[in-house]
Amino acid sequence: MAWRAIRAHKLRSTLTTLGVVIGVAAVLTFVILGASLQAGVIGDVSPDDRENVYGWASPPDTNGGPGAGAQPVFTPRDLAQIENEPAVRAAYGFQPVPTQTLSSGNETVPRGSGVYAAGPAYVDREDVAEGRQFRMGEREAVINPAAAALFEQNLTVGDRIEIQVPVVGSVNATVVGITEDAESRSPFEGFNPEPRVYLPTDPYVTDVTQADRTRFSLVVVEATDRGSVDDARDQALAYLNSSESDASGFGDEDLVYNFQTSLELLDQFQELFSVLQNFVVGVAAISLLVGSIGIANIMLVSVTERTREIGIMKAVGAQRRDILQLFIVEAMVLGVVGAILGLGLGLVAGFGVAELVGFEELVIPWEWGAIAVVVGIGVGVLAGLYPAYNASKTDPIDALRYE
Amino acid sequence: MTGGPPGGEDAVASSTTDADADGVVVDDAAVELVDARKTYQLGEPVHALDGVTVDVPRGSYTAVMGPSGSGKSTLMNLVGCLDTPTSGSVFVDGADVGAMNDRERTRLRGEKVGFVFQTFNLMPRLTAVENVALPLVFRGVSKDDRHERAADILERVGLGDRLGHAPNELSGGQRQRVAIARALVNDPALLLADEPTGNLDSETGANILDLFDELKAEGNTLVMVTHERDVAERADRIIHLLDGKIERIEAVGDLAGRQHDDATTERDDVPDDGHADVGGDAA
Ligand SMILES: Nc1ncnc2c1ncn2[C@@H]1O[C@H](COP(=O)(O)OP(=O)(O)OP(=O)(O)O)[C@@H](O)[C@H]1O
Ligand SMILES: [Mg+2]
Fold it and tell me: Which residue in B has a C-alpha nearest to residue A1's C-alpha?
């Protein structure tokens, strides 16, 4: 019977549903955009590097992203010592290499960033799709597919590349491995996929600065496993804070060690985004609210208009709860239909706008979709509840007389 | 019954009251009105019903006659528990309707009362068969059973070929018969019909009245409003209303045959308070 009432008032039912549709769609569109924006900026750095701790030393109260204010204080000896700690599998310096061009054969492409020197463990063995990891002390490079694609003829394992480094001049390397994808490997690289070349710190850093004078600003400490991350960090910090370490005795500037996992580093970004997300959801919630006021209004009219029918039903034995049930079912059907349509519309709109803006990755936060649907249906039912409650109270004889 | 009104014993003629072995009076009225008044306050008060005391004995068949505006529909609404009196009391099966809450009154209507409204009051968006099945919906009868019962009764009132029609696709007389079928679907102990044959030709009307006779024979209680003398005469007795008061009560049929003089002559000896013996003058 509820269904019949809905069909009998197509326009009204459509308008009611529209309120929910727009509300739910707005919420979903906004959260898709928010989450996709977040994913686009931050990417999914995490899963592979959860056993890594990223460290640097900076003056106290330095704000900014990973590595902000980092001072070159870590010597290769420090790193070797840290690597000897029981919970630590590897410790190495991380050094972005300033570049101008990349060349292969007689082809040269401009490249101002994306070349990094690190330890072999920096590129996990499993992540090398072709070839192998680079070795310390060798003039070898692992590149990512985006870097390989910079050249007309894709670079392959065995190709030689030439990197033009300002001040130093050109350095050569043999490509020994190509990674699986172009994703960022750590927070030190930033969060976007882009062409990257990875080199061993020895010889590329130590050759230039001479081994005994080398000081790294950024270090990576890899724990033996995920469960030992905290131990690895504690052991590394204990060593660094002890008088034994080179870092502690270097200069008299008061530096603070920041040793954090990528998840911890991400959290800081996440916080910023959650503020944005809350704002966006707030806007969407207001549209849902406006929709619900519309539903309440329409339900009120609908119930008033059907006073006589309510009188008839009560006259033939309908209890208050029967009347209530009828209207709630009606409101619920409208709410559910609206929520489902809203979900569809929200997905389409979210995808469309994301496409338009050019987000690389689309993230659908289903939990928000679910919340929007539940709220949409809840709003429909609540909006129907009050007039239905009033209707159920009417005296049958008064209701029958209602024209 | 202990819920009877004070003076109820007095109000009920011996033909409708049995004394059991202990000498306790058992009130056998299906419905009992005691000095019931319905007043509408419209600037000056309008007394739609002005102190009516009447019994409707179980299993009786009563006709109500009177000029337009004399309070017939108002009386039916009170008897059918649709409305409550401004003052005075209505007892159904000995229970005071005025003391009931909305839920109890609704249940009473749903289970015991079948109402044929003067204005039909059909649900405009439901088909004939759905309209007839409506009371069963609220009693939790399954959809198939509802449909079967409703179709049966529509067949009985001669609308077997109009099951799927909406009220606005039916003639006035057909609507009236749908309303009658709806009142009958619950097999009500008390059937109240406000001008049930008003829109019917004599043959269809006669069918309906035959149906009412059957119901009466099955032991149901019937009250019917009519403007037609010959229709009213199918009942046991006729209550004549005038200006919200009982003018007189007339016995017809078998009772009238036995009490011919009394029953067919106007009774001017009705007490001023409107209190009347309604079981005829059989005693
Ligand atoms: N809701 C109301 N408000 C005010 N007056 C009312 C109301 N309902 C009925 N009345 C008055 O009560 C009186 C009796 O009305 P009722 O409907 O009982 O008449 P009736 O005998 O059924 O008439 P008819 O034969 O025309 O159906 C009328 O004078 C009517 O105007
Ligand atoms: Mg009337």
Answer: B126
Helix A366-393 to helix A307-315 angle (10° resolution) is: 70
Q: For A111-140, what is each residue's pLDDT tens digit?
A: 888 899 999 999 988 889 999 999 999 999
Task: Give the span between the Cα atoms of B23 and B21, in whole angstroms.
Answer: 5
Question: Are B114 and B189 in contact, with CB atoms under 8 Å apart?
Answer: no
- A47-81 tens-digit pLDDT: 567 788 999 998 888 777 788 888 888 999 999 99
Contact A113, A96 (CB under 8 A): yes
3-state secondary structure of B260: helix
Q: Which of A4, A306, A314, A316 to mutate to test binding with chain B, by most B CBs within 10 Å of its CB?
A: A316
- Residues A397, B77 contacting (CB under 8 angstroms): yes
More confident call, B274 vs B74: B74
For residues A77 and A245, give the distance between their C-alpha atoms in angstroms, rounded to a whole number: 8
B42 Cβ below 6 A of ligand 1: yes
Closest residue by Cα to residue A354 from A44, A34, A23: A34
User: What ipTM, to 2 d.p.?
Assistant: 0.79
Which residue on chain A is closest to B74 by alpha carbon? A397
Using alpha carbons, list the distances in angstroms from residue B15 to A37, A184, B26, B58, B60: 90, 102, 12, 11, 11
- The per-residue pLDDT for range B173-215, each reduced to its tens digit, is 899 999 999 999 988 999 999 999 888 888 888 988 998 999 8
Which residue has 């005391």 as its token pair? B53
**Residue after which a domain boundary falls, among A251, A280, A311:** A251
SS3 B265: coil
The residues that bridge with B40 in the sheet, in sequence order, are B46
Which residues form the domain of A382? 2-43+269-401
H or E stretch at A159: none
Name the amino acid, one letter, at B280: G
Parallel, antiparallel or unpaired: strands A115-118 and A197-200: parallel
Whether B71 is in the pocket of ligand 1, judged by its Cβ within 6 Å, is: yes
Region class of B170: left (phi > 0), else alpha (psi between -120 and 50), else beta? beta
Which ranges of chain B would DSSP assign to H, the alpha helix? 8-11, 72-79, 102-112, 128-137, 143-156, 172-184, 202-217, 229-232, 253-258, 260-264
In a domain, B133, yes or no: yes
Residue B164 within a domain: yes
Pair (A25, A92) in one structural domain? no
Cα-to-centroid distance, B64 and ligand 1 (Å): 14
User: Is position A50 within any domain?
Assistant: no
For ligand 1, atom 31, name the residue with the nearest CA. Answer: B69
